[in-house]
Amino acid sequence: MPEGDEQVSGSQPQDTVPVEVQPVSKKQRGPTKMKDIARDPNSRIKVEFTELGEPCGEGSVKLSSYLGPLVREHVPVLIDDWRKIGEELKTVLWKSVKIRFELDGAYEKAAVMKQMGCLWRASKSRLVKQINKAKNHANRMKLRPDNIPTPEWRKFVKQKTSVEFKKKESSEPAEVTRLNVWVKSRTKKDGSAVNTDAASKIAKEIMQSVAASESSLNPKEDTLAQILGPDNPGRLRAMGRGMSLSKLACFQVKSKYVSDMQQTQVQLQLQVNELQEALEKLNSNRAEADVGENSAQRSVNQRTKPKCILFDWAGSEYKVAEGRILSFDHMDFINSIPLGPNSVKVLVEMAVNGDAFLWRPAQNMLCISQAVGETIAWPQNCVVALEDEFQPEDIPPKSPSTTSVNKCKLLNWVSNDEEPVAEGRWQTRDPKALVNGLPLGPNAIKVFVDVVIEPDTFIWRPTEELSNLQDSLKTFVAWPLNELYSTI
């Protein structure tokens, strides 16, 4: 084949099929769904509110973002008016919000329901605009929300694209020009013109007005009302969503009471601080006074000190208090006063007879009830020490007294000998009385052993700790009634 023919055949273009290039649509932001909040119902978000009942703070942003998807999902746009959704649906919406946000008050519910109403109306308005902008019926059908059946959506689209609806939106649709828009934006509903110099007039009034503290709080008489005229019924300009005159009055009263309570709280807190300082100073002074040159420090663990019973020093022989023995040293001090001879330094823990007069009264401390928790001096012969193993019912009487009518002698119950084996004071013959934790029983008597004559004598009712009279000195024992006689 000639060379020229090869060049001609090689240069012939091959048949190509034209490829239609589809325009790449840019991904746009869709409606908010707030899946993170809906996915974690156990974590409730706190929402703060202003003094006028409006949500604020970081929690209010998430609340607003959550209410939009919620109301779009549960409230169909087929409803003509938000106020006609029914109480059952309102309850469902409110419970859904409470599960995920910390909202419990009635005013919080009112604010949230109003916000959901505004979001629902705004969502419905955007959807209607998308319907009117759609090029054909197929595109309008693609806008159908998931909670609306196809037949109902077809009726809704037909209604919003009808001539009657468009005429309702604009009274003069054929005459809507830029001039009409400009005039409409500067004309009130009653047809009167808005003052175009309102901004300059407001600035002038503010400069000439009195101080902010002296300005009127009545929205009917403030500067804004005087310039722009009265507000429409049920609404207030520049006061947030859902604010009315009556609602503002309630919040003003509440704010006044809260302010008064806060001032009172500040004053009370100052008084409490002053009292605490005075109490700390008083305690420090008392601690310094109680700690003498040879006295025991308050920091010492008093629980290690022996327990004791205080009997009336005036001679009635009744128990007046319980406490702990701190010292027998006559050179010790109590309130900077020497303890002295035949005296005991005692910490009073419990008052039995609060009216009993102190042996050594002090300033602001005259009786036993005032000495609880304090260190006092008490006569040595009116203090009886207790052992740790003593039961509460085994509290011994005070030291032997020549005037005691209960003095007795104990006979040997084993040998029936007439010679006494011990001396003491009987307390009771009540069978229900306890001795070493056990009832006394019949034909027995409860005796406190003061003097032991025969120390090896076996006691009538021994215990694990007590078996003979030597072990029972200065304790209670049970003794046969026929083996005891009174010495008075």
From TrEMBL:
Domain of life of the organism encoding this protein: Eukaryota
Keyword Coiled coil (UniProt): yes
UniProt keyword list: Coiled coil
Cited Pfam families: DUF8039 (PF26133), Transposase_24 (PF03004)
Residues annotated as domain DUF8039: 307-384, 402-482
Coiled coil: 258-292
InterPro entries: DUF8039, Probable_transposase_24
Region (Disordered): 1-37
Record has Manganese as a keyword: no
Name used for this protein in its record: DUF8039 domain-containing protein
Organism the protein comes from: Microthlaspi erraticum
Taxonomic lineage of the native organism: Eukaryota, Viridiplantae, Streptophyta, Embryophyta, Tracheophyta
